[in-house]
Specification:
The chain is of the alpha/beta class and 367 residues long. It has 2 domains: 2-160 and 351-366, Glycogen Phosphorylase B (Rossmann fold), CATH 3.40.50; 173-348, Rossmann fold, CATH 3.40.50.2000. It has helices spanning 10-26, 38-42, 58-64, 66-83, 94-106, 127-132, 144-150, 161-167, 194-207, 225-234, 248-253, 264-271, 284-293, 301-306, 321-348, 354-366, and strands at residues 2-7, 31-36, 46-50, 87-91, 111-114, 136-139, 156-157, 185-189, 214-219, 242-245, 257-261, 276-280, 312-315. Helix 9 (194-207) packs parallel to helix 10 (225-234). It is globular and about 60 Å long.
């Protein structure tokens, strides 16, 4: 069989790579072509376009790059037609993938959406585009089947693939040879997109002035060290942060606290039981549009799944160095309560095996 996968960010690359591993167990002769990253390439996929070129964050940035995005859509469609896949597997990345799904359905290509967009949060009307333009919806959050069922669409809950990724993780303790083992580590996860890092990392670093922690920045796969280093040089009065690349899980396994850009990383941090502060800031235009479209009490997956405030969220104007310092102080006293809530969250996510179950459902569709 021929499989074509599209992921537009680091988390999609991770989950896509684990899915390919399990598809190969069921189809040893399969061929894989993808829009993704290093992890999918490492398990045998031919990468057409790296996700580092696709990372547009927020409404304003999308508008500024609209010609480039249209060009990528045209390239993708042509490449799919040339490859003639037996199935197209779309992984999150809704702005791009929902358009590809609608087009692919008209080409009579089987379409699987694995890790469906969070349309329950905003643009609920897109549920019909998703339901009508796919052959199989594989969801990873426990409340999603009920959401799709309400609109008359069937989905299959496979569990969260992060549980698989973390179960397969083996820590690399060698990265900590450069740290003082008697001083706690504060990890900074400023996001995987350049725009996120430019917007939030300066405030995160400024907040750490005078704090009794060693600082470590989790380097994103598609971002050059020079971007982080420019900010580190600017805040030369701080204890010099270490840049830890491609070792985020090892870093989290040794961290006391974390400052985390909103996204999948908030859930990863919770599964490592690291008390965190969730940070988000976008352009004024993007934030104002999102505020009018999104109907949610929280933005982090940790709080959304838990249906209560487990971790503090500092959003837009609330994301200041002063507020971060105050909330870090509060973490010291709330540490055990947060960890207890994390364990409840872990149970809500179900069992490991999401990648295997997703591969099995895709094989059923193909047969």
């Amino acid at each position: 069989m021929k499989y074509y996968l599209i992921a537009g960010e680091a988390s999609g690359d991770l989950h896509g790579s684990n899915l390919i591993k399990h598809l190969k167990l069921r189809d040893s002769n399969g061929t894989y072509r993808a829009w993704g990253g290093d992890k999918m390439e490492a398990v045998g996929a031919v990468i057409v376009q790296h996700f580092r070129n696709l990372a547009f964050m927020g409404f304003a940035e999308v508008l500024r790059n609209i010609r480039k995005i249209i060009g990528f859509l045209s390239l993708c469609k042509k490449d799919i037609l040339d490859f003639k896949p037996d199935v197209l597997i779309l992984i999150d990345y809704p702005g791009f993938n929902l358009r590809i799904a609608k087009w692919a359905k008209k080409q009579h290509i089987k379409v699987v959406y694995y890790i469906t967009p969070q349309i329950w949060a905003w643009h609920k009307s897109r549920v019909h585009d998703l339901g009508k333009n796919t052959d199989l919806l594989l969801v990873i959050l426990p409340f999603e089947p009920a959401f799709f069922n309400k609109y008359g669409y069937k989905s299959i809950y496979v569990g969260h693939p992060l549980l698989d990724a973390i179960a397969d993780f083996h820590p690399d303790d060698s990265i900590f040879n450069q740290f003082d083992h008697n001083k706690p580590v504060l990890s900074i996860l400023p996001g995987s997109r350049k725009q996120e890092i430019l917007t939030m990392l300066p405030t995160m670093l400024e907040a750490c002035t005078g704090l009794p922690y060693q600082l470590a920045i989790a380097g994103a796969p598609a971002i050059d060290d020079i971007l982080y280093q420019n900010f580190i040089d600017k805040y030369a009065h701080l204890p010099k942060p270490k840049i830890i690349r491609n070792q985020t899980y090892s870093l989290l396994s040794k961290s006391k606290f974390a400052l985390v850009s909103s996204g999948t990383a908030t859930l990863e941090t919770a599964l490592f039981e690291v008390p965190q502060i969730v940070c988000y800031k976008g352009s004024i235009i993007s934030f104002q549009i999102a505020k009018r479209l999104i109907d949610l009490k929280f933005i982090s997956l940790v709080n959304l799944i838990s249906e209560k405030e487990v971790v503090r969220e500092l959003i837009q104007n609330d994301l200041t160095a002063e507020n971060i310092r105050r909330e870090l102080f509060n973490l010291e006293s709330n540490c055990e309560t947060i960890k207890s809530d994390y364990r409840i969250l872990r149970k809500l996510l179900g069992n490991e095996g999401a990648s295997s179950r997703a591969a099995e459902e895709i094989q059923k569709l193909l047969q």
